[in-house]
Design goal:
This protein is an all-alpha fold and about 575 residues long. It has a single domain, classed as Sodium/glucose cotransporter (Up-down Bundle). The protein is built from 22 helices and no strands. α18 packs antiparallel against α20. The longest helix is centred in the middle third of the chain and has 50 residues. It is a multi-pass membrane protein. InterPro entries: Na/Glc_symporter_sf (IPR038377), Na/solute_symporter (IPR001734), Sodium:Solute_Symporter_SSF (IPR051163). This is Sodium-coupled monocarboxylate transporter 2. One of its GO terms (molecular function) is symporter activity.
């Protein structure tokens, strides 16, 4: 989560005066058309294609969703501001190692299809946190839902404020007015259309994002001189060198990027309610597996073009770095600068680019508040009221509405306290390794029980929070070398040194030769958080005794483990909300 937040905050600043975008009437029409289509989808599913007034219909489309739209929706969820704005900048500044975030899909998709998702279908689970209560106990479920809800509430204003700020900077309109208008449209189609509107708007918004990403990459390569020329220049500039360094302080290596990405994407797609909700809305496990395979291919293709854009940016400016030359303030602003340089002269393209950024935000925001409404209702409201399907839908829609108001008001805080929010989100983000670990613990370790699981999660969160807090601002990483020998002479400032490519380091800058855990690369955080959870929980599962009344239901284990487990068949504990209903009855 911390990577997502920090990249998103950087993306907000990315469409800044450096980019010198100019909006004209065509751009406004394109942007308005994108918002109008999103609203129209909400009207259609909210008033003309309404299903039954049930929570299953509202949250999962009656489990009749189609494979291809769900797959596209999942891809759109990953094409956030981090993908569009900061990944090309990452490739420009630090080289190709980030691409192993994409390569890891060859492991992630089989892991989802054969280890994780079958557990949800075999137990008819629609809320992934239900699994934690069925497998462990209610305390583990409450802890994880609290982490999910608190993290989402911190991030919701960020999702929407950042593109609103970008639009404000290129048009001059008040950022909070834009925030209110776009938030209103997002809340409208999410509140009335439910998951069907969320998925189909994702399909439209994904189309906009794909067109923008591919167009910028291809046109940039054409301007450089073709694909072969792009790779030749990038190779000479060290951007295609894979880092096999085993130093734990090195910023990005094949080892830390691939391992952290595998855990992160498996957890985000397969163990995060905003994605799980869409996956289990498909009618069968077969459909879900097919959707995830399509998602994997789509993710790789789109992320390839996004990474390729970063290589193109370097090839375009390899002998005149806009950062050293003073035209761009930092690497995170390279994308809008490059977009303006490449397609800024074409009428309507700036509008497509800003629509792309907004589409990324809306797809993430709508899925988040829709799933958040379901989690809050079923975990915190339903146990305390007399449940009816109609009442549940009304409450969840009201919750979505208030989330929209909160996003607008939260934008006022985001505008003033960005640096503080970065710290908060970094602390919240390190819990992601523990969250993924506790699910995998339940699915893969038959001996694991609730007391050990909760102690493992708390230990991981405590350790990682301390590391992040104490290392904040400590580690700085140099970008790969660049040149300015072909820049116009008047543009060079007094501090710029015109020199050929020279060696550079991507390890953390710190004093002393001894290793300190505070110098650990941030790319290891998810892995370490995951490992701490298992290193604490697995031994404690054998040391501490579980409750005498608890017996393992083998269906709660992953299918890959079940054949090797000797068990006594027993029903899992009844969920808390079901107990409440039976008591009232």
């Amino acid at each position: 989560m911390s990577a997502l937040l920090n990249a998103s905050i950087q993306a907000a600043a990315a469409v800044a005066p450096d980019s010198q975008f100019v909006f004209n009437s065509t751009d406004y029409v394109i942007f308005s058309l994108m918002l109008s289509i999103s609203a129209a989808i909400g009207v259609y599913f909210g008033f003309f294609a309404k299903g039954e007034d049930t929570t299953e219909e509202y949250l999962m489309g009656g489990k009749r969703m189609k494979t291809l739209p769900i797959a596209i929706s999942l891809v759109a969820s990953q094409l956030s501001a981090i993908s569009i704005m900061t990944i090309p900048g990452e490739m420009y500044g630090y080289g190709i190692n980030w691409f192993f975030n994409v390569v890891c899909m060859v492991v992630v998709v089989p892991l989802l299809n054969y280890v994780i998702i079958p557990v949800f279908y075999n137990n008819n689970i629609t809320n992934c946190y239900e699994y934690l209560e069925m497998r462990f106990d209610r305390k583990v479920r409450v802890l994880q839902t609290f982490l999910f809800i608190s993290t989402m509430f911190f991030m919701l204003p960020i999702f929407l404020f950042l593109p609103s700020l970008a639009f404000s900077q290129v048009t001059g309109f008040n950022v909070h007015i834009i925030n209110a208008i776009v938030s209103g449209i997002c809340v409208f189609y999410t509140m009335f259309g439910g998951i069907k509107a969320v998925v189909w708007t994702d399909v439209v918004q994904a189309g906009i994002m794909v067109v923008s990403v591919v167009l910028v990459g291809v046109m940039g390569a054409y301007r450089v001189g073709g694909f072969s020329e792009v790779f030749r220049i990038a190779g000479e500039g060290g951007r295609l060198d894979v880092n096999f360094n085993l130093d734990l302080t090195t910023r990005s290596t094949i080892w830390n990027v691939f391992s952290s990405a595998t855990i992160m994407w498996a957890g985000y797609v397969g163990l995060n309610q905003s994605c799980v909700q869409r996956i289990v809305s498909l009618p069968s496990l077969k459909h879900a597996r097919r959707a995830l395979v399509i998602f994997g291919f789509g993710f790789v293709i789109i992320m390839f073009f996004n990474c390729f854009t970063g290589i193109v940016i370097f090839s375009r400016f390899f002998d005149c770095d806009p950062i050293k030359n003073g035209q761009v303030s930092k690497v995170d602003k390279m994308v809008p600068y490059f977009v303006q340089d490449t397609v800024g002269h074409l009428r309507g393209l700036p509008g497509v680019f800003i629509s792309c950024v907004f589409s990324a935000a809306l797809s993430t925001l709508s899925a988040s508040i829709n799933s958040l409404g379901g989690v809050v209702y079923f975990d915190y409201i339903k146990p305390h009221i007399r449940h009816t399907e109609h009442k549940a839908n009304v409450i969840m829609k009201l919750f979505v509405f208030f989330c929209g108001i909160y996003c607008v008001l939260g934008g006022i805080i985001v505008e003033k306290f960005n640096s503080i929010l970065q710290v908060l989100y970094s602390i919240g983000g390190v819990s992601f390794g523990a969250t993924c670990a506790v699910f995998m613990l339940g699915m893969l370790v038959p001996r694991a029980h609730g007391r050990a699981a909760i102690l493992g999660v708390l230990s991981s969160i405590a350790c990682m929070s301390i590391i992040v807090i104490l290392s904040w601002g400590r580690n700085h990483y140099d970008t790969l070398p660049t040149r300015v020998d072909n820049c116009p002479a008047p543009a060079l400032n007094a501090t710029t040194t015109v020199s050929p490519l020279s060696p550079s380091t991507t390890a953390a800058a710190h004093t002393g030769d001894e290793f300190s855990i505070l110098d650990l690369s941030f790319n290891w955080y998810v892995v370490v958080g995951f490992a701490i959870t298992w290193l604490v929980a697995v031994p404690l599962s054998y040391i501490l005794k579980q409750r005498a009344d608890v017996k393992l239901d083998p269906k709660l284990l992953s299918p890959v483990v079940q054949p090797f487990v000797r068990y006594e068949l027993a029903q899992a504990d009844e969920l808390h909300e079901l107990k409440s209903e039976n008591t009232k009855a």
